[in-house]
Amino acid sequence: YAMTNIELQIRSIKAFILKNRNRQRVADMAGLHKNTVAYFLNDKHSITLNNVIAIEKAVQKLIKEKNHGDV
């Protein structure tokens, strides 16, 4: 089946976190425990939509930092 836009975005967020090995930094920036980020990455537990949004915002900030650092 075709993935939804949300599923595609979640896949992209997970790939970024895994590639950059920055679970703790994402957790700190999102105001979450590192285990919550691990649950998000591993699909072992359900996490709230608010936590997914917090993780996404943290990742977006990290992407902006990374892009500005590359200039």
Would you write up a description of this structure?
The protein has 71 residues and is mostly helical. Helix content is 76%, strand content 0%. The protein is built from 4 helices and no strands. The chain has helices at 5-20, 23-30, 34-42, 49-69. It is globular. The model has no long low-confidence stretch (mean pLDDT 93).
Write the topology of this structure.
Layout: H1 5-20, H2 23-30, H3 34-42, H4 49-69
How far the N terminus sits from the C terminus, by CA atoms, comes to 39 Å
The gross shape turns out to be globular
Series of secondary-structure elements, N-terminal to C-terminal:
HHHH
Low-confidence sequence ranges: none
Secondary structure class reads mainly alpha
DSSP helix count?
A: 4
Number of beta-strand segments:
0
**Largest sheet: number of strands, sense, barrel closure:** none
